[in-house]
């Protein structure tokens, strides 16, 4: 009897378990589906609103290569959002943007350009929104994907200008038909009388590549020696120019022998097009610096398409977006998973080498003394 009683209990228990399992089986899927991660819910809403906006207006560097890379790449990723891309020198973009805003026109969403423009033109006109809150996708927001395990910002607030490029910036280029490398690979060799009238200088009074180059010289030599160097270098120059493409072409054409402070971005685009000149990646006595070139991203405030701006920003900072940017601009991405085998060797930072960081707002802020000297020497 005892065995029979145990069997009855066992059968009853098995029946209860089966019934409970059956009830679970027929529960609707939603009862067990986990809540979506917060980032995903936010992303889906931003993406839906961006599709309603339909357009994102991006102000970026000049050149067909980068224009095509950005517009075609973004179109493939987000075919329901049209990109309007306007490419020109960052300083010129900022002047145009400022004039439009003064007239009550707010037409731009995203600004991709140089840190000098960000900190000394756009930030003072209060044209920027914080970037960090707009980083949504995990592969963008997680710092493990980025060099030094952090998001880098050029501005001292650490809010407005996200740096996604960090590469060795060449202080000069030269025409090998007129100059041998060993004649100019030390800083003071540029002051040799034989180069008088053969040097063109990228104007240091406008935002762009010349700002960090001259700041590097000032910080490296110190105020007294740098002041003397500025004066003597200015006397050597056959021209001071603001057109970053033209001045590089002058070297390729042989009109001048040496260009001080070439634009990294423009230089790379012209090298890719087969324009011939040589690059001095650093001075063997004083080295060089790490720059960002055009590789920083900002969100324009009062933007007409804020959700589309967020979508573009996140896409640009993904591995896919960064690889397209890197190939078009020959820039070294700060993302650790972006290949570097397509880059010019001189742009890649060497392990163990200490470089001056030239893209920060602090690094690019001139002292009043330096500002006065440069204006006295280069003002038109």
Description of the molecule:
The chain contains 14 helices and 15 strands. The protein is of the alpha/beta class. The chain has two domains: 195 residues, D-Maltodextrin-Binding Protein, domain 2 (3-Layer(aba) Sandwich); 138 residues, D-Maltodextrin-Binding Protein, domain 2. Strands 1, 2, 3, 4, 5, 6 and 14 form a seven-stranded mixed β-sheet that branches. The protein has a five-stranded mixed β-sheet with strand order 10-9-11-8-12. The chain has a three-stranded mixed β-sheet with strand order 7-13-15, with helices on one face. A hairpin with an 8-residue loop joins strand 5 and strand 6. Helix 2 crosses helix 11, helix 3 runs antiparallel to helix 12 and helix 8 runs parallel beside helix 14. The chain is globular. About 6% of the residues have low confidence.
Brief summary of the model shown:
This protein is an alpha/beta fold.
Q: Any idea what the CATH superfamily of the largest domain is called?
A: Periplasmic binding protein-like II
Task: State the CATH topology of the largest domain.
Answer: D-Maltodextrin-Binding Protein, domain 2
Helix/sheet category: alpha/beta
Overall 3D geometry? globular
Strand content: 5-15%
């Amino acid at each position: 009897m005892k065995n029979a009683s145990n069997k009855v209990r066992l059968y009853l228990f098995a029946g209860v378990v089966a019934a409970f399992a059956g009830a679970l089986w027929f529960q609707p899927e939603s009862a067990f589906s986990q809540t979506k991660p917060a980032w995903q819910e936010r992303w889906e809403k931003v993406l839906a609103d961006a599709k309603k906006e339909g357009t994102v207006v991006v102000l970026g560097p000049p050149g067909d290569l980068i224009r095509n890379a950005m517009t075609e790449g973004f179109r493939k990723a987000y075919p329901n959002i049209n990109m309007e891309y306007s490419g020109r020198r960052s300083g010129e973009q900022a002047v145009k943007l400022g004039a439009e805003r003064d007239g009550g026109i707010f037409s731009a969403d995203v600004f991709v350009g140089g840190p000098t423009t960000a900190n000394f033109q756009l930030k003072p006109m209060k044209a920027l929104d914080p970037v960090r809150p707009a980083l949504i996708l995990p592969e963008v927001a997680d710092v493990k994907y980025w060099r030094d395990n952090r998001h880098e910002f050029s501005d001292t607030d650490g809010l407005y200008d996200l740096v996604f490029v960090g590469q060795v910036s060449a202080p000069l280029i030269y025409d090998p038909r007129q100059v041998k490398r060993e004649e100019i690979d030390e800083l003071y060799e540029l002051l040799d009388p034989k180069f008088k009238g053969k040097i063109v200088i990228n104007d240091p009074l406008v935002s762009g590549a010349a700002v960090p180059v001259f700041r590097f010289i000032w910080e490296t030599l110190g105020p007294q020696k740098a002041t003397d160097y500025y004066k003597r270098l200015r006397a050597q120059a056959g021209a001071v120019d603001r057109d970053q493409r033209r001045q590089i072409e002058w070297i390729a054409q042989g009109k001048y022998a040496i260009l001080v402070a070439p634009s990294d971005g423009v230089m790379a685009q012209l090298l890719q097009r087969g324009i011939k000149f040589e690059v001095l990646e650093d001075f063997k006595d004083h080295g060089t610096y790490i720059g960002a070139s055009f590789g920083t991203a900002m969100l324009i405030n009062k933007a007409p398409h804020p959700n589309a701006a967020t979508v573009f920003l996140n896409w640009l900072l993904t591995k896919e977006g960064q690889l397209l940017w890197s190939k078009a601009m020959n820039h070294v991405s700060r993302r650790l998973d972006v290949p570097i085998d397509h880059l010019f060797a001189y742009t890649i930072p060497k392990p163990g080498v200490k470089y001056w960081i030239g893209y920060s707002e602090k690094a690019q802020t001139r002292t009043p003394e330096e500002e006065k000297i440069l204006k006295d020497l280069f003002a038109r």
